[in-house]
């Protein structure tokens, strides 16, 4: 499973990228707003930092304006994936932009029907939002599983990019289901390393080493 980092925090991306943990980056209008930076400037900096796809989202709501903005975003770098919302206008923009050979990430997906439409519109990635479904007592992972089944039934090339990841379990659960990508905040990716028995075992090793006075010099 590919790991994308869901942030515009350059330092956080760089830290994980140095560990080989970054196969791409996703942003959205809220993440860009939180960065306090110009969207084109921060997106260019991210594209210069990572080789994989970098999703940058349009802010228009009508298809023609989305297409214009998408073309502008795609000019930033070769590895830009233009992000469009899962609306009819977003699907129209997806069809045109993907037809021009641009990567398109269709976002704000909350149903299998929406994911089916995105695949038929030529989406490179589909972004089902797990956490936001869980937040209203629906099953985000079940949606990932349903989309996986549908895409595999018909050989759709669209990659499932699990998004709105809230915790480390979401990452392993998405991998078990067969999501192509999961995009998560840096803290969630880091939390995947945590286990109380690892900490306990290491403390035991260190105590025994200290007792025995063993050093590697
Ligand atoms: O960026 C897309 C998605 O990951 C947003 O997640 O946490 O705002 O539901 P969240």
Automatic annotation (TrEMBL):
<dbReference type="InterPro" id="IPR022999">
    <property type="entry name" value="Transaldolase_3B"/>
</dbReference>
<dbReference type="GO" id="GO:0005737">
    <property type="term" value="C:cytoplasm"/>
</dbReference>
<keyword id="KW-0570">Pentose shunt</keyword>
<protein>
    <recommendedName>
        <fullName>Probable transaldolase</fullName>
        <ecNumber>2.2.1.2</ecNumber>
    </recommendedName>
</protein>
<dbReference type="Pfam" id="PF00923">
    <property type="entry name" value="TAL_FSA"/>
</dbReference>
<dbReference type="GO" id="GO:0005975">
    <property type="term" value="P:carbohydrate metabolic process"/>
</dbReference>
<dbReference type="InterPro" id="IPR033919">
    <property type="entry name" value="TSA/FSA_arc/bac"/>
</dbReference>
<dbReference type="GO" id="GO:0006098">
    <property type="term" value="P:pentose-phosphate shunt"/>
</dbReference>
<feature type="active site" description="Schiff-base intermediate with substrate">
    <location>
        <position position="83"/>
    </location>
</feature>
<dbReference type="GO" id="GO:0042182">
    <property type="term" value="P:ketone catabolic process"/>
</dbReference>
<comment type="similarity">
    <text>Belongs to the transaldolase family. Type 3B subfamily.</text>
</comment>
<comment type="function">
    <text>Transaldolase is important for the balance of metabolites in the pentose-phosphate pathway.</text>
</comment>
<comment type="pathway">
    <text>Carbohydrate degradation; pentose phosphate pathway; D-glyceraldehyde 3-phosphate and beta-D-fructose 6-phosphate from D-ribose 5-phosphate and D-xylulose 5-phosphate (non-oxidative stage): step 2/3.</text>
</comment>
<dbReference type="InterPro" id="IPR018225">
    <property type="entry name" value="Transaldolase_AS"/>
</dbReference>
<keyword id="KW-0704">Schiff base</keyword>
<dbReference type="InterPro" id="IPR013785">
    <property type="entry name" value="Aldolase_TIM"/>
</dbReference>
<dbReference type="GO" id="GO:0016832">
    <property type="term" value="F:aldehyde-lyase activity"/>
</dbReference>
<dbReference type="InterPro" id="IPR001585">
    <property type="entry name" value="TAL/FSA"/>
</dbReference>
<keyword id="KW-0963">Cytoplasm</keyword>
<keyword id="KW-0808">Transferase</keyword>
<dbReference type="GO" id="GO:0004801">
    <property type="term" value="F:transaldolase activity"/>
</dbReference>
<dbReference type="InterPro" id="IPR004731">
    <property type="entry name" value="Transaldolase_3B/F6P_aldolase"/>
</dbReference>
């Amino acid at each position: 499973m590919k790991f994308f980092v869901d942030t515009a925090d350059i330092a956080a991306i760089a830290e994980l990228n140095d560990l080989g943990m970054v196969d791409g980056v996703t942003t959205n209008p809220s993440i860009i707003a939180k960065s306090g930076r110009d969207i084109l400037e921060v997106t260019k900096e991210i594209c210069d930092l990572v080789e994989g796809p970098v999703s940058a989202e349009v802010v228009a709501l009508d298809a023609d304006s989305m297409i214009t903005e998408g073309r502008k975003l795609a000019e930033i770098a070769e590895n830009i994936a233009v992000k469009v919302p899962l609306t009819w206008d977003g699907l129209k923009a997806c069809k045109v932009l993907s037809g021009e050979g641009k990567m398109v990430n269709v976002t704000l997906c909350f149903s299998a029907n929406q994911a089916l439409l995105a695949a038929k519109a030529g989406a490179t990635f589909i972004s089902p939002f797990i956490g936001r479904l869980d937040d209203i007592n629906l099953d985000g992972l079940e949606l990932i599983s349903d989309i996986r089944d549908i895409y595999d039934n018909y050989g759709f090339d669209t990659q499932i990019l699990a998004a709105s990841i809230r915790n480390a379990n979401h990452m392993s659960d998405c991998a078990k289901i067969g999501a192509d990508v999961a995009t998560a905040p840096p803290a969630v990716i880091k939390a995947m390393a945590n286990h109380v028995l690892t900490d306990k075992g290491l403390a035991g090793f260190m105590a025994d080493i200290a007792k025995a006075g063993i050093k590697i010099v």
